[in-house]
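Batch manifest, entry 17 of 40.
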Amino acid sequence: MTQAGWFGTFVLAGIAAAVLPGLAAARGPAGPGAFGLRADPPSFETLDADGDGKVTIAEFRAHAEAGLAEADADGDGLLTAQELAARAEARAAQRIAAMIERLIRWRDTDGDGALSAAELSAGMGERLFARADANRDGVITAEEFEAAQGRREKPAAGRRGKGFGQGAPGQGG
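Output type: structure tokens
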């Protein structure tokens, strides 16, 4: 493979490494907020519907019922598999769109609202290469490549992807 081919592979791998965890987080595991009902924990102010500085069980239940009503497309008080899937897809699409917007804000150096190959790959290949080159000898062996793939597939316990731009200047991290 040519040097340009390898570089393109690293760029695509970096994009996949950044997008796929975001997609998984957008869908979320089964549990609180599963199926796109209310994935993000509500603020205290949202739960305190009457603004009295206290959350009652009635306010808490009302908030949960509002989440069900949002997903209940036909208004029958029941959630079908199709309604759950539609809500989950909508939530995933919203999160992916936000992630893409952050990527463009972070990488769009000329301000045209689009990413060129140069903007998208600026520094990415070098960073990915450096991570894979464990012994810092300027080459990646098959063993180093496999080790890098293993690290990418097994995130640290309790960590979830935060999307593009986290930790970058002006990106909330």
